[in-house]
Structures are given as structure tokens and as C-alpha cells.
Amino acid sequence: MGKNKIIIHVDMDAFYASVEMRDNPSIRKKPVIIGSLPHERGVVATCNYEARKYGVHSAMNIKEAYKLCPKGVFIHPNYEKYKKVSNQIHKIWDEYAIEKEAIALDEAYLDITDNVESIDEARKIAKTIKERILKEIGLTCSIGLSYSKIAAKTASEEKKPNGYFEILTKEDFVNLVIDREVDALHTVGKKSKEKLNENKIFTIRDIQNNKEKVLKLFGKRGEFIYDISYGIDDRELKPYNPENAQSLSREVTFQKDENDYEFFKDILFLLAICLENQLKKRKLHGNGVSLKITYSDMKTITRQKLSASCDSAIEIQEEALKLLEDIEKRSIRLIGTGLYQLSTQEIKQLSIDDYLEKDNNIEERTNREFERLKEKYKLDFKSNIEKLYQTDTLFKTIEYMRKHRSN
User: Which residues are within 8 A (CB) of 273 and not within 5 positions of it... i.e. 6 or more apart?
Assistant: First the structure.
């Protein structure tokens, strides 16, 4: 391969479900569906391959998944456990990659170009990664070995689950995909596919034969789509740095529609507590607050407002409440808040006295809010704050609050 890039794409197989099956051997041969429970609102986060045989897939409404697979094992996701397992996996990947672009907890591109002198050495690394993940962590993964990101991603999906596949040249890539549907190019999503299909472009061969039409439809992005239809992809890996995050958010879906706007004040504080924790971990500052609302008729709105650096839960809550005041008041299914324009530095410049006054004031207001919630719900939120950071505990707490609130 000469000086060509050598990229490995690693994708864990049905990651959340596989972790649960590893930890509970009694469900290994059963359809496992991670997400909400059948009697709850929500969607499928992921499912194992046994469940997929019934037509279940990610993002499907949980009640539809239950209709298709009533004998499935439905499990709430345990994100904290998955993050711990992910950290173990990434430690293995990091031993081999010159650069790594992590896509998710369970997926990454690894650049091993400077680690090897031949394709045989690259194969050895790829297969060693598979073997180590299985032996040390007890999970399977699928690996694609190739010259670019698009081809490595395509290769990793060829033999799923627990597969290995190579695409070593642009010609190999084109020969493999040319007569597949346009979304076989992993940068072409659902909306782009619809747009192409509306213009009688159905396959990757059609993209190649309709360059001008593709460029007219998508502009500069159309050039990229056209190039990758020929396997041309010169993108570099983009190592993830926490300070590069553009936004953070937390949201909750209620099991029954809610129209108690005083209750929303309480929920926004708990969501803001989680955001504050994420900011501290990443050493970031939020410079704008957003509010997301989904009404009972599924209409979703978002509102946002730039502000000076907003780092504490009480500040986030207060800004979100201002946004809440200006929306249409009717039953709500989902509420969320977030931070955007994240930065490693605060926008406003404060003197030492200003900082001390600000910090003391925030601490007092935060403690008052904790005490108010403790009195209202008979729960000691402050003493159990670490548990609230856990997604499942947060949602269960909010559902408890919904059922046991008092005036």
C-alpha cells in the first residue's frame, strides 16, 4: 500500500445488549432490547441480533418493539456500566493507534499507518485487537481494514457480527458498492437518500453517472458525495478533545403528559445539576442556554439564549426558566435543557471580589433550591447527588417526584 493511509474501523457488536448478555448468561440466546420497558414511553436504544430478526431496530417506539417481539427481554440502559466497559475497550485501541477518532462509546477509527511496514502487519494488528477484546473483555467486534475512513466503515459492516473484512483499494471499494443503494455510502443519510431518489438517483452507479445533478442538489457536499462514490476520501482522523464539544444537554420524557409548570422548575434544576457535573469534568464553560420541549402532540420546539458564562446548576436553571416563560403553555411530553458555545474560558472578566461574591451567592441559592426540593419531595437530593448523575437513577427519581409531589 506504499504511503497510503491504513485505517482500521472498529465497531462493537450490539454493544449495550452484548454487555448485558455477557453479564447475564441466562439471556444470551434470547432477544434482548435495551431502552424503555414495554409499559413505558420511549424508544429502543439498541438490541441484539436475535431481536433484529423480529424487525426490532434502534429508535423504534418501544411499544412497536413489544408488538413485534413480546417475548423479548427488555432492559433499561445502564450507561455508567457501558462507559466503564468502553474505557476498557478504548485502552486496548489506544495501544495500536497513532491517531484515533472515537465516534461513540463503541466505535472508532484507528490510524495505524506509521505502525506497520506491510499490509500483513496491519492484518495482524486488526486481528490482535479482535482477539484481545474477546479475551480480556468478553465481547465481540467487527473490524474493517482499508485505505480511508469511508472504505474502512464499509468494510467493518460487511461481515457483522464478529466479522473482519478488507477493502484495500479504491477499485475494490467501487466494485463492492457500485450497484448498492445510495445510502450504502455512510455519509448519505435518510433525507439525502430521499432527495436523490426523488431525482431518480437510486444507486451509487447512478451517482457516478449524474455528477451535475448531484452537485446541483447538494452544492459543495455534492462534490464530496460524488468523490466517495469512486472511493475517493482524503479525510484525516479527528481525535476527540472534550474542549471541542459544541454543546451539552440532558432531557427527560415523562411517562404521562405534564402541564404542571412549577414541577418543570424542579426538573430543570436536576437536569442542570447533571450539566454542571459534565462541565466540571471537561473544564468547560457554557455561554448559552437552550430549552427543548416536546408537546403531547409530538410537536418539538427549541429555544436558546446567549448569556455570560453559565457554569452552575442554579444559573442554568434560571436561564432555562426564562425561556420556559415565553413558550405556549400546554401539556408537555419531554423537557430538556442544554448549554452551547462551550469554551475553556469564561466570557466575562471578573475581579477577585466579584468572583468571591458570585461564588458565595451561587452556593447560597443552590443550597436553598436543594432545601426546597427536599421539603417538597422528602428526598435528600444533595446527599445523593452522585447517584443523580446516573441516567437511570435520574429518570427513576423524576418519575418518583412526578407521582409524589406536594404543593
Answer: 313, 381, 385, 388, 389
Could you read off the pLDDT of 346-356 as tens digits, one per residue? 655 444 444 44
What homologous superfamily does CATH list for 243-404?
DNA polymerase, Y-family, little finger domain (3.30.1490.100)
Return the pLDDT at 310.
Answer: 78
Cα separation of the two ends of the chain: 70
The answer to whether residue 358 scores a pLDDT higher than 90 is: no
| pTM attached to this predicted model | 0.78
Rounded to whole angstroms, the Cα distance separating 204 from 226 reads 9
CATH of domain 170-240: 1.10.150.20
| Active site (annotated) includes residue 243 | no
- Catalytic option among 20, 107, 166, 319: 107
Mean pLDDT of 169-197: 95
The CATH number, out of the four listed (3.40.50.2300, 3.30.70.270, 3.40.50.300, 3.10.20.600), of the domain defined by the range 1-168: 3.30.70.270
